[in-house]
Design a protein that fits this description.
disordered N terminus; 11 helices; 11 strands
Length: 314
């Protein structure tokens, strides 16, 4: 309690000092305080809001799941895994698994984005025109799919979007806006959730984010990730696998990943949960089973917007 009081007192003194100096100093303090809250929330150190279980949302996500199975989801025979593996490999053939999907338009556009980011938090991201073009190409491809069309219809019925153009602009903003997580403009929702990040430059820094099977297969095929063990959560209907692994020599303690899910499904289902149940456990339905997705929002003051801080199967 005494330590908390001291921290609060220091914060109040800093705010008083900022008021006495100028508005810019005050804004810097407020931004720093907001970043602390955002980081704590995204890291799970702040209690999430109560779970959201909505019948319309579950019906929409179940339909999206069915459309994905009929469309671009990778069937089990094409991406065989062994959760009991002791050789550092989750996939029986990671390179072969990728070869079966990498030429499909949405997968090809997704994979093109994966080398656009610096893994270490605190290292500024520099987005060039080619990378912006790749982001737009990816959004254009996924927006053609029945999965995203269903997501659009659902979100429009809830007043979250109005036109396909507004939907694309919203997806671009919440997933691809670069914001500051460790002082520098060093992260985005897409990078965190699907590409993966490292907490810092130290060899002991942990992996954060990294919740995508395509990225995992790519990194395993390149010898950059090593599967360690199954970590106690799975859903055979939705092919959700909880696991511990290493990436670039650092540990990811636990990540629950939907094996076989298409890129459009990954974006669609996490977007719906982020918009309908931010900072909460979102109950979706996949293959008739109810499963949870946890999202966290990164609140930005100037401009006053929210971006994806984290989104994953929980």
């Amino acid at each position: 309690m005494q330590k908390s009081f001291v921290i609060i007192a220091i914060g109040l003194l800093a705010l008083v000092a900022a008021n006495e100096q100028d508005e810019t100093a005050r804004e810097k303090f407020q931004r720093a305080a907001q970043n602390v809250m955002n980081n704590n929330r995204a890291a799970g150190r702040v209690r999430a809001a109560p779970a959201v279980a909505d019948a319309d949302l579950q019906a929409a996500t179940q339909k999206m799941y069915e459309l994905d199975l009929q469309g671009n989801a990778s069937p089990p025979k094409n991406r065989q895994i062994n959760t009991r593996s002791t050789n550092g490999k989750l996939f029986l053939d990671a390179a072969g698994t990728l070869a079966k999907v990498q030429d499909k338009p949405t997968y090809k556009a997704f994979i093109a984005l994966l080398d656009n980011y610096e893994p270490a938090l605190g290292t500024a991201e520099a987005v060039n025109p080619q990378e912006v073009a790749e982001q737009n190409a990816f959004l254009d491809e996924i927006l053609k799919t029945p999965v995203l069309q269903k997501a659009f219809d659902y979100l429009k019925s809830k007043g979250k979007v109005t036109t396909p153009a507004s939907f694309k602009a919203l997806l671009s903003k919440i997933w691809f806006t670069i914001y500051r997580r460790r002082g520098q403009p060093d992260t985005s929702g897409f990078e965190h959730a699907f590409v993966g990040e490292i907490e810092g430059p130290e060899a002991t820094s942990a992996v954060t984010g990294f919740h995508n099977w395509i990225r995992l297969a790519q990194q395993e095929a390149a010898g950059k990730s090593q599967y360690i063990k199954y970590s106690g959560y799975g859903n055979p209907v939705a092919d959700l696998v909880g696991m511990k692994f290493k990436w670039l020599g650092r540990e990811k303690i636990k990540s629950t990943i939907a094996i076989g899910e298409s890129p459009e499904m990954s974006i669609a289902i996490n977007t719906i949960c982020f918009l309908m149940a931010p900072n909460a456990e979102c109950k979706v339905k996949l293959g008739g089973d109810v499963v949870s997705i946890q999202t966290y929002a990164w609140d930005n003051r100037y401009p006053a917007e929210q971006y994806v801080a984290s989104a994953y199967y929980n």
